[in-house]
Structures are given as structure tokens and as C-alpha cells.
Amino acid sequence: MLCITLGTGIGSGQILDGRLYHGATGGAGQIGHLVLEPNGPLRRCGKRGCLETLASGTAIRRDTLAALGHGESSVLMGIDREQLTAEHVADAARDGDKLALGVFERAGRYIGAALACYADINNPELIVIGGGMAAAGDLLLGPIRQVFTERALPANARAARITTAALGSDAGAVGAAALVWIERARYPR
Ligand SMILES: [Zn+2]
Fold it and tell me: How many domains does the chain divide into?
């Protein structure tokens, strides 16, 4: 399985054959910095157009501000631009705001494309979406599932169930604690 956390950034980790898979130096399964748009925006990781620059909460805020700046009409015009967050955009999208729906659709499509690349390498049975943006639910899951199904090999797309995280914002703490127990069992003193 792959777990991806969508917040101000995008993180992820994977369990392969029942075990957290670290890779050579702990960086395995990190899909947040896959480059999807080589000429896209430059961000703090130093790469252009990586998934995090295109689909994180930070990207949703930036894209929304840009669309508002172009004069697109939206209920978000009533919110102080300094205070605007991805949650405001999610709320507006849930209420059917066209600008907000477009921003979420675009982010979801990029996430779906990245997950399809991952699925064709590791053929997961489960992909869990967590982090603050997971609260957007079907606003994100809809476009994610659509592009995932279009882009992953059919057998790999069929094998993977995509769902939101059950543990919510506790997932990181529960996972870190579980890792200690697992490592202790593997390497008893
Ligand atoms: Zn990056």
C-alpha cells in the first residue's frame, strides 16, 4: 500500500509485502516530488513542476489567488486574500463555486497521474489519502480516481482501492509509535 498525505506539502510512504519500505536511505516511496510539468512553477525543493508544487494545499491557495487576480468570479472574493486557505477553497467547492471546483479538479488530476505512475511500478492493493486536504473527500477523490483509471495499466488500476485515511490527523503519531514496536520486535536487545 501507499499512503499519501496532502497538506501544505505532499508526503508519502509505502508498505511492501507487509513491511514499511525505507529504501537505501529512507527516501523510498516519495511521490510528492515527482516532476509532472517540467516547465511548471519552481518551488522550495528546487525542482520545477513537481507534484507538491501543483497539487498541495499551498498550490491550491496559490492557484486560487491567481484566478482571483485574473478577475474570475467566486464567493472567495469576499475573503481577505492574506487569510485565504485551501480549506476556504474546499468549502467554496462544496457549495458549487466554479472557480474553487476547477482548482480542486486540477489538483486531483495531477495527484491521480502521479498515483498511476506509482501503481504501475508497485501494483498496490490500497492507496490511502490523508492529511488536511483529505477532508475535501470526493472533491479530490473524484478527479484522482478518474485520471488514475485512465493512466495506470488496467490490471494495476483495478487492483488498487483509493480511499481517505481512517485515522485522520492522528495517523502520523500512530504510525511512528507502531514503527518503534515493530523495530523492537525485529531487533530485540
Ligand atoms: Zn518538489
Answer: 1
